[in-house]
Specification:
This protein is mainly alpha-helical. The chain has two domains: 33 residues, no CATH class; 69 residues. Helices cover 71% and strands 0% of the residues. It contains four helices and no strands. Helix 2 packs antiparallel against helix 4 and helix 3 packs antiparallel against helix 4. The longest helix has 29 residues. The radius of gyration is 17 Å and the shape is flat. The termini are far apart.
Length: 108
């Protein structure tokens, strides 16, 4: 990873490092085992169908999309647009389905 020389680049890198560390800590906690309530909380933070723009996956997809904003049309821009969809739309759909199943009482 390069180290930016300008203040805006350093701020962006700092923000992304904070996000990376926070997600790594959440991952460590999740690896120790989750209760049902914690699992649904985690899935809801990743994607909440009621507020999809608040989810981590949506934000990740938007961040990837933002990296392609000034690129000319072509393979790189198309690849980033596709990556944004894979990072947000595809997993969000599966999380919605899994959350619905996990929220259904076992005797239903």
């Amino acid at each position: 990873m390069t180290h930016p020389s300008d203040p805006a680049g350093r701020r962006l890198l700092n923000l992304l490092d904070l996000a990376r560390h926070a997600l790594a800590e959440a991952h460590r906690q999740a690896r120790t085992g989750l209760r049902d309530e914690e699992r649904l909380l985690l899935l809801g933070c990743l994607h909440d169908p009621e507020r999809p723009r608040d989810g981590i996956l949506y934000m990740l997809g938007e961040l990837i999309t933002d990296t392609s904003r000034d690129l000319p049309e072509g393979a790189a821009a198309e690849a980033l647009d596709e990556a944004a969809g894979y990072a947000s739309d595809y997993p969000a759909d599966r999380i919605t389905r899994a959350s619905a199943i996990l929220s259904t009482p076992a005797d239903a």
